[in-house]
Design a protein that fits this description.
30% of the residues lie in helices and 26% in strands. With 101 residues, it is an alpha+beta fold. The protein has a single domain, classed as HPr-like (Histidine-containing Protein, Chain: A). The longest helix is centred in the last third of the chain and has 13 residues.
Length: 101
């Protein structure tokens, strides 16, 4: 029997535009590769990382912190992926040249 993990991590939004449509879509597409469920929360609002509209509803701007909660068998892998995305500003640069995901 596989263990079910729940992991949490506070993450800071580092990209200039905050959690906008392209970023929400990138998070959504990332979750398609995993079985775990992941949510971001901010100020009592909870958004599923499997819903672009939920993520946009958080209105997370640059410098704000969100709490990532992941539950599932591959939670550790999801955490690594999400931390990488946040730390790398969702691969956005000042000119928004890299828009592939």
């Amino acid at each position: 029997m596989n263990a079910l993990f729940t992991l949490t991590r506070e993450l800071e939004v580092l990209n200039n535009a905050g959690l906008h449509t392209r970023v929400a879509l990138l998070l959504f597409k990332t979750m398609e590769r995993f079985q775990s469920e992941a949510n971001l929360s901010k100020e009592g609002r909870i958004a599923s990382c499997r819903s672009v509209l939920d993520l946009l509803s958080l209105g997370a701007a640059k410098g704000e912190k969100v709490l990532l909660t992941i539950q599932g068998e591959d939670a550790e892998q999801v955490l690594q992926e999400m931390v990488t995305l946040f730390e790398n500003r969702f691969y956005e640069d000042d000119n928004m040249q890299n828009t592939e995901f």
